[in-house]
Design brief:
The complex is a heterodimer. Chain A has 17 helices and 19 strands. Chain A is α/β, with parallel strands linked by helices. The relative contact order of chain A is 0.13. Classes of the chains: A alpha/beta, B alpha/beta. Bound molecules: iron/sulfur cluster (SF4).
């Protein structure tokens, strides 16, 4: 018998029932909910007089709508306030733990899951949010779902799914100076396309992934959804166990040992079979920048904005023309000559401590360029406090960044952090769709290092040429000052 | 309890955009509206209206020829991006009953099934053929879910539909009720065997 991949192992363990046609009822170990996609799921339960089957496996947090300014001030946006209140009421009525606006653990759902130990290897996890794939970095099988499916999970703690196919993406080689997980995932999406992962679970493997830290792996898994994948996953290892050890919800004492025993059975077998395997050699990978209106519209930092005339397929040519028009870019322009107005560091892709440290490496003893508006929105209040304890916030503030409270913020522009029409933003988030960061806003997705450098120079620069402090050095520096 | 559907009839519009993400179908500011009804007017908001709020004449569904269309014939990867089910609710509220495309975003597809918005995957050539017809004439389609056929003037196309999806449309079941009634015992059995370390217990706080 052939071996199994980590995804298959977890899948098999969670099958409650499999019908002949392959439709499978899968048990859900963790259900995370936020204020935007959950209200009508709870409303559905109420209408039918149903309860939440497992409030102990269900957790709620407010993140999408929340103000990132002073939390003691009243929330001005009435609709946001209503949605936030609705989640508070639902959590109360149905007996669910809520990390509300004032909780020290509040933050973006995909940041707090792993950092609180709610996300552990080998579990199934769902959330009414596409970037739930992030949790796969810890070896969990995590699916983004819709509101109706969410209601089904609330009521039954299960979900009906057909087993997706699996795809192995191997990342090999040695990364160049200051090239990071974000550049890799943009490169992957650029190559396999926005639909390249449809119907598949993407497993990342290879030397680069093994050497990578857990938070960077989250960046890889987070954006797999932008390649259309059902989710992403990485075989768990000691780094993952270390990451969750001693978090508030991780198994403790005896249970930790039992859990470890299970977790160590999870990594993909060497003879696991995949529907598709793609290998990327990353030695030559340069920092990536998106130029268009979906994450596959990406170029390297030394490249030029593409010309629609170079595309044979009429639909593609039209899409490129449309994207250039929206983005206000001329074909043939060097991306390094493109100026930015705003820099946003944050989101579930790059709002973790490692990301802030990386950005700080650039910002030490630097100031943001004249006319640039820059904000850093930590992915969670815990990330924020940890960064402050390390003194990182001073580096950002001295450089001219706004230092804010946790939330989705300018990733989705549902609170007051928005681009104004026509503004161009270097953003560490995951979507450069039209109007995503505010009506008429223009988004270029980049890594935290690239974003910080864009803030300093007012345009995109090739950060491979920069001689930055190491992460350790920057922490040492922050502590001293 | 939803009622089932078998036949969908209506006018088709060529919707030749690829990679239509759910942010375009319904922008995030309208996700704050906690209702499935009445949000059709925000569907494709930034494509449909100009900044001053007037209709954008360049948007295909604003063309009088297609303003009453209930079937969209779209480009590949329709509905990628955000999981927002509001995208499906908005399309339905706007009167769209069926979308035909070469491929769909996975979550969007699932959400559509749950709301009985029919998504039909067809090979690219067939999609293009239908788009051409819809551009040239007023194209009325009759879609038979049970037999999985699309009837157009002068011809018929077959499409594949998953058995489960088909049943869902035909019977319009309350899925939660079905799951609890038929599989409730099995879920209970599963839970009885779950190792305790799976269940999160907050025993230690403020470790930061
Ligand atoms: S940070 Fe952005 S992508 Fe992540 S959950 Fe929030 S809105 Fe979604």
């Amino acid at each position: 018998m052939a071996g199994l991949s980590v995804f298959e192992k977890i899948w098999l363990r969670h099958v409650v029932y499999e019908r002949e046609d392959g439709e499978t009822l899968l048990y859900v170990d963790r259900h995370l909910t936020h204020e935007v996609t959950s209200p009508l799921a709870f409303e559905g339960l109420r209408e039918k007089g149903r309860k939440v089957r497992r409030p102990d496996l269900t957790f709620s947090v407010t993140d999408h709508n929340v103000p990132t300014g002073d939390r003691l001030k009243p929330i001005e946006d009435k609709l946001s306030l209503e949605q936030i209140k609705a989640l508070e009421k639902n959590a109360r009525d149905f007996g669910i733990t809520l990390f509300d606006l004032y909780s020290p653990y509040q933050g973006i759902v995909h940041v707090i899951g792993p950092e609180l130990g709610l996300t552990i290897p080998g579990i199934t996890l769902v959330c009414g949010d596409s970037h739930t794939s992030t949790h796969g970095a810890l070896g969990a099988l995590a699916f983004g779902i819709g509101t109706s499916e969410g209601e089904h999970v609330l009521a039954t703690q299960t979900i009906w799914l057909k087993k997706p196919k699996n795809m192995l993406i191997k990342l090999e080689g040695r990364l160049q100076n200051n090239v990071t997980a974000k550049d890799i995932v943009l490169w992957v999406i650029r190559n396999i396309g926005t639909g390249g992962g449809i119907g598949h679970v993407i497993e990342y493997g290879g030397k680069v992934v093994e050497e990578m830290g857990v938070e960077e792996r989250m960046t890889l898994c987070n954006m797999a959804i932008e390649a259309g994948a059902r989710t992403a996953i990485i075989s768990p290892d000691e780094k993952v166990y270390h990451y969750i050890k001693n978090t508030p919800y991780a198994p403790q004492e005896d249970e930790w040992e039992q859990a470890l025993e299970y977790w160590r059975t999870l990594p993909s077998d060497p003879d696991a079979v995949y529907h598709k395997t793609i290998t990327f050699e990353l030695d030559k990978l340069e920092p990536q920048v998106t130029w268009g209106t979906n994450p596959a519209m990406t170029i390297g930092v030394t490249e030029e904005i593409p010309d629609p005339r170079d595309y044979d397929d009429p639909a593609e040519r039209q899409a490129v023309e449309r994207a250039l028009k929206y983005m206000g870019l001329e074909p043939g322009t060097k991306i390094r000559d493109v100026k930015v107005d705003v820099v946003f560091i944050g989101s579930c892709t790059n709002g973790r401590l490692t990301d802030l440290i990386d950005a700080a490496r650039v910002l030490v003893n630097n100031k943001i360029a004249h006319g640039v508006r820059a904000l850093v929105v930590p992915g969670s209040q815990l990330v924020k406090r940890r960064a402050e304890r390390m003194g990182l916030h001073r580096i950002f503030i001295e450089a001219g960044f706004e230092w804010k409270n946790a939330g989705c913020s300018m990733c989705i522009a549902m609170n007051e952090d928005k681009l104004r029409p026509g503004e161009r933003c270097a953003s560490t988030s995951n979507r450069n769709f039209e109007n995503r960061q505010g009506p008429g806003g223009r988004t270029h997705l980049v890594s935290p290092i690239m974003a910080a450098a864009a803030a300093v120079y007012g345009r995109f620069v090739d950060v491979r040429e920069s001689d930055l402090m190491s992460r350790e050095e920057v922490l040492e520096y922050a502590k001293r000052s | 309890m939803q009622r089932g559907v078998n036949v969908i009839e209506g006018k088709a519009a060529p919707f030749k955009y690829e990679n239509v993400d759910t942010d375009q179908i319904i922008p995030s500011e309208f996700l704050k509206i906690m209702s499935k009804r009445g949000i059709g007017r925000y569907c494709f908001y930034r494509w449909r209206y100009r900044e001053d709020g007037s209709l954008n004449p360049d948007f295909i569904l604003n063309n009088p020829k297609y303003s009453d269309a209930s079937i969209l014939i779209a480009g590949k990867n329709f509905g990628i991006g955000s999981s927002r089910e509001n995208a499906v609710w908005a399309l339905k509220d706007m009167g769209i009953k069926c979308i035909i495309a070469p491929s769909f975003g996975d979550i969007f597809y699932m959400n559509s099934v749950k709301n009985l918005l029919l998504c039909i995957k067809l090979p690219e050539e067939h999609v293009e053929k239908l788009q051409d017809m819809a551009e040239k004439t007023e194209l009325y389609l009759k879609i038979d879910i049970e037999n999985s056929t699309i009837n157009y003037p002068g011809g018929e196309m077959k499409f594949d539909l998953d058995q489960t999806v088909k049943e869902r449309f035909l019977k319009g079941l309350d899925e939660i009720e079905t799951t609890l009634t038929y599989y409730g015992e099995k879920i209970k059995e599963y839970e009885d065997k779950m190792p305790s370390f799976i269940i999160p217990k907050a025993r230690r706080f403020l470790p930061d």
